[in-house]
Write a structure and sequence with these properties.
The protein is of the alpha/beta class. The protein has two domains: 108 residues, D-amino Acid Aminotransferase, Chain A, domain 1, CATH 3.30.470; 152 residues, D-amino Acid Aminotransferase, Chain A, domain 2 (Alpha-Beta Barrel). The chain is built from eight helices and 14 strands. Strands 6, 7, 8, 9, 10, 11, 12, 13 and 14 form a nine-stranded mixed β-sheet that branches. A five-stranded mixed β-sheet has the order 1-5-4-2-3. The relative contact order is 0.14.
């Protein structure tokens, strides 16, 4: 199997690439700090799971990691994005007989507002766009992100930092580009992602530190939580200061989370 890896300096993609034509691919976005990719093992696991569930051939990580190392040399605080497509070939939607992966590596500037959000918290409105259910793709970060494009477009006219996105059964699923989790009575829970949504890298890392319950969460239940957070691999865990008109105490939220983390660290 041949793999074509391109970077910012050598960027080129064929017009027949299946990622471009059909969204036939997946990606991961990581924080680069002091020349190091944070949570790389989790990102690697995500790429492996996506490849397996979407019937892609195995990725050559030795080659990929060498290209990433070169791309992030000298980076102090940046964003790394790795996009994997099935390359060219196949007739219509049919898969090619021999797959030649295309992998795109890009490095971009880190969002300037993320560090401030941890202290101020984020305000959440309710998105008018709802997510469709598709368990075959649930949890995966595929290239099919048109729902998120519509969500971000609608968000531009809403007075908030981010939005809560529901499914068509009115279950809370996620934010526009982040997972959601909440603290109840000394328990931590997050919306079920069995039908739709993305299971983020930061959420997965949190699951390895704390007992996190995945369950159906209504908007009413979420507003009754002691603390609510949104999280992704770039911003980490950011407290919510309000959902619609319901306020949350940011300092209390961070204290509750730190207490749970400290308690688990002692076990």
């Amino acid at each position: 199997m041949q793999t074509i890896i391109t970077t910012d300096d050598t960027s080129a993609i064929n017009t027949r690439d299946r990622g471009l034509n059909y969204g036939d691919g997946f990606f991961t976005t990581a924080k680069v700090s002091a020349g190091h990719v944070e949570h790389w093992q989790y990102h690697k696991t995500r790429l492996i799971e996506c490849a397996e569930r979407l019937a892609f051939p195995a990725i050559n990580f030795t080659e990929l990691e060498q290209h990433i190392k070169t791309a992030i040399t000298g980076c102090k605080l940046n964003v790394l994005k790795v996009v994997v497509t099935r390359g060219e070939g196949g007739r219509g939607y049919g898969l090619p007989q021999h797959t030649h992966l295309t992998i795109l590596i890009t490095v971009s500037a880190f969002p300037q507002n993320y560090s401030a959000l941890v202290n101020s918290g984020v305000s959440l409105a309710l998105s008018p766009i709802k997510l469709a259910s598709q368990p075959l793709l649930a949890g995966l970060k595929t290239l099919n992100r048109l729902e998120q494009v519509l969500i971000k477009n609608a968000m531009a006219s809403q007075q908030c930092d981010d939005v809560l996105v529901l499914d068509h059964q009115n279950n809370v699923i996620e934010a526009s580009a982040a997972n959601v989790f909440a603290i109840g009575n000394n328990t931590l829970y997050t919306p079920s992602l069995e039908q739709c949504g993305i299971k983020g890298v930061y959420l997965q890392s949190l699951c390895d530190k704390l007992a996190v319950e995945f369950k159906h969460v209504s908007l009413n239940e979420l507003t009754q939580a002691r603390a609510v957070f949104i999280c992704n691999s770039l911003m980490g865990a950011v407290p919510v200061n309000r959902i619609e008109q319901h306020p949350f105490n940011v300092e209390q939220s961070m204290r509750l989370l730190n207490e749970l983390l400290a308690k688990e660290a002692k076990c």
